[in-house]
């Protein structure tokens, strides 16, 4: 009788593990399908690249402004 109970316990354990495995497999497939459909019907928009001035150009403008400010300061002395 004890062997029969162990066998029944093993059957239920295997059945439970199979059910959990199938549920997780279906869940993963549904999530993949959902991601595919969302990307298909609502594609991610690529943001526009706004051209910016280079650091060298900005630095040159800063240097020019500083030189102009120094020359104006020296004129007024």
TrEMBL record:
Root EC class: lyase
Record InterPro entries: Na_pump_deCOase, OadG
GO BP: sodium ion export across plasma membrane
Membrane topology category: Single-pass membrane protein
GO molecular function: lyase activity; sodium ion transmembrane transporter activity
EC number: 4.1.1.3
Chain segments annotated as transmembrane: 12-31
CC annotations in GO: plasma membrane
Annotated keywords: Cell membrane, Ion transport, Lyase, Membrane, Sodium, Sodium transport, Translocase, Transmembrane, Transmembrane helix, Transport
Annotated localization: Cell membrane
Entry-linked Pfam families: OAD_gamma
UniProt-recorded name of the protein: Oxaloacetate decarboxylase gamma chain
């Amino acid at each position: 009788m004890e062997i029969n109970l162990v066998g029944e316990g093993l059957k239920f354990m295997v059945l439970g593990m199979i059910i959990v495995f199938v549920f997780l497999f279906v869940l993963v497939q549904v999530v993949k399908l959902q991601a595919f459909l969302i990307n298909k019907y609502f594609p991610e928009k690529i943001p526009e690249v706004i051209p910016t001035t280079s650091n060298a150009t900005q630095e040159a403008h800063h240097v020019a402004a500083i030189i102009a400010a120094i020359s104006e300061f020296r004129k007024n002395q």
